[in-house]
């Protein structure tokens, strides 16, 4: 548990049962929410039947995530009808609550309260009101119309990750106009923390024993640009050499004493620069790993998606990145079945995947999101076609991943152990990438030097050599 320096208020202990869904950014929101609740005397419990409040922290990004969230809400209600603590309250938070709270209040009368994204910083007092006050008919609801909150280094948090790894949200919101996405509607415009704030948080995490810092936001490569624009004026170009951008942040974090990795997640190809590439290369603590969703490669699709890039830019960027950062692992994702995607467009994507040989790659079927530009586009693709294209794309990547994994046999690597028998290389982010299977148990939460002895599909097998 990580709490702010201020002393928490003293209240009788109450328990919160958490069901957190979605991405790492949503997980950090849950940690902040629990941090404020802890200051009001609430404790996290893994036994939801024993909780005074059950919070479902939802994801509202694409249809499968929304369906999972609704299912979790209904299951939580079902459980409290069969043996849960008397008077237990069911709260819905996260992106689904922010986006659909008014509709859900009518459609899900089982829910006692809805909490918005900005309200996580006041979760403790919100839960107190829910449990102690009569709030009339209908659910208690606190959801700001326009999200504007951003955490600071001393924001109370209850960390939900393993003790050796942590997510640090360096910015919130998004300014990109992607036609398939509604995140800017939910999370507002991009807003960055200061370098000083991020550095203080990372210093505290490293001092507590964290070995892996995962930097996250909706677009980490846009970090600091809004701060420089505020200082220089909206018509002045961002000067990365002087402005508080991502290269300056990586330099500042790289100067923190200690043995740890800094991992860069959720970058956008439109904002990569030679200065960013150089910043990774000159900082040995920054993992040679870049998460950069590309979504497509055909120019007509990129234009329809409003991705602010074209094929030529992407191809030249990948060459520059691989030349400038030796040993780089690039993780990317693509969308198949976007409105208007022809077989020619899809074949172009398959050829690009085959030729570029990404170290890590995922594929998603297009999800038609209401209120997005793409939802109104003609030539929507049949669901069966989407599934076929997804399978074909992943089959291409499966062969590439198998070849790349086999190329590591006999090599020595530094890995971080998540458990005594499972670890990850520098090229593998938590929860989403490949794993290393140790032949004998090792110390969890520490770095180890290993030799790769074999493969298990996408994963590696390795023996300890230190």
Characteristic terms for this protein:
6-stranded parallel beta sheet; 466 residues; alpha/beta
Molecular structure report:
By secondary structure, this protein is α/β, with parallel strands linked by helices. It contains 13 helices and 19 strands. It has helices at 24-39, 63-80, 95-107, 123-132, 183-187, 195-207, 225-232, 246-254, 274-282, 299-305, 311-324, 343-356, 383-406, and strands spanning 14-20, 42-45, 53-58, 89-94, 113-115, 140-142, 165-169, 171-172, 191-192, 212-216, 261-264, 286-291, 329-336, 360-365, 412-417, 422-425, 436-438, 447-456, 459-464. The protein has a 6-stranded parallel β-sheet with strand order 2-1-3-4-5-6, sandwiched between helices. α6 packs parallel to α8 (246-254), α8 (246-254) packs parallel to α9 and α12 packs parallel to α13. The radius of gyration is 23 Å and the shape is globular. Mean pLDDT is 92; it is low at 1-9 and 232-242.
* SS class: alpha/beta
Shape: globular
Low-confidence blocks of residues: 1-9, 232-242
Number of strands: 19
Strand order of the largest sheet: 2-1-3-4-5-6
- The amount of beta strand, in percent, is 15-25%
Structure annotation, total helices: 13
What is this structure's SSE topology?
Elements: E1 14-20, H1 24-39, E2 42-45, E3 53-58, H2 63-80, E4 89-94, H3 95-107, E5 113-115, H4 123-132, E6 140-142, E7 165-169, E8 171-172, H5 183-187, E9 191-192, H6 195-207, E10 212-216, H7 225-232, H8 246-254, E11 261-264, H9 274-282, E12 286-291, H10 299-305, H11 311-324, E13 329-336, H12 343-356, E14 360-365, H13 383-406, E15 412-417, E16 422-425, E17 436-438, E18 447-456, E19 459-464
Parallel strand pairs: 1-2, 1-3, 3-4, 4-5, 5-6, 7-10, 10-11, 11-12, 12-13, 13-14, 17-19
Antiparallel strand pairs: 8-9, 15-16, 15-18, 16-17, 18-19
Helix pairs in contact: 1-4, 6-8, 8-9, 12-13
